[in-house]
């Protein structure tokens, strides 16, 4: 790739990322009082993270049963209030054990 084209792409990417983060600060001056909008904005990061993580779970293993096993174990540990490291280790262990049977 030509360096000039790369830097043009880089500037466009940096500009669009910057605008996405700055426009809400410029457009919204006062505190948001609407309960629906506040609730919507509160859950956006969780929804985005989930939509990015769940498909990756199913493509990270060789066997879909191992992926489902790890996902179920992770959900159970998370619902029991375990920490992130404990959930990750338990899910990885469950996937490893499930993949042994494949």
Walk me through the structure:
This protein has 102 residues and is mainly alpha-helical. The protein has a domain at 61-102. Helix content is 81%, strand content 0%. It is built from 4 helices and no strands. The protein has helices at residues 3-27, 35-59, 64-79, 84-100. Helix 2 (35-59) packs antiparallel against helix 3 and helix 3 (64-79) packs antiparallel against helix 4 (84-100). The termini are far apart. 8% of the residues are buried. The model has no long low-confidence stretch (mean pLDDT 92).
List its salient traits:
102 residues; mainly alpha; 4 helices; 81% helix; flat
Produce a short descriptive summary:
With 102 residues, this protein is mainly alpha-helical. 81% of the residues lie in helices and 0% in strands.
* Alpha carbon gap, first and last residue: 42 Å
Record field, number of beta strands: 0
Biggest beta-sheet profile = none
Indicate the overall shape: flat
* Structure class: mainly alpha
Alpha-carbon Rg, integer: 20 Å
Which spans of ≥5 residues are poorly predicted at pLDDT below 50?
none
Count every helix, treating DSSP H or I runs of 4 or more residues as helices: 4
* Element-by-element helix/strand order: HHHH
The mean pLDDT is 92
Question: Beta-strand level of the residues, as a percent range?
Answer: under 5%
Q: In which range does the helix fraction lie?
A: over 70%
SSE order and pairing:
Elements: H1 3-27, H2 35-59, H3 64-79, H4 84-100
């Amino acid at each position: 790739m030509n360096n000039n084209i790369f830097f043009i792409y880089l500037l466009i990417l940096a500009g669009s990322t910057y605008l996405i983060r700055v426009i809400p600060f410029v457009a919204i001056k006062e505190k948001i009082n609407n309960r629906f909008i506040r609730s919507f904005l509160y859950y956006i990061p969780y929804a985005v993270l989930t939509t990015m993580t769940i498909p990756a779970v199913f493509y990270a293993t060789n066997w879909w049963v191992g992926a489902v096993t790890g996902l179920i174990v992770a959900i159970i540990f998370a619902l029991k209030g375990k920490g992130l490291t404990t959930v990750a280790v338990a899910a990885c262990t469950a996937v490893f054990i499930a993949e042994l049977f494949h």
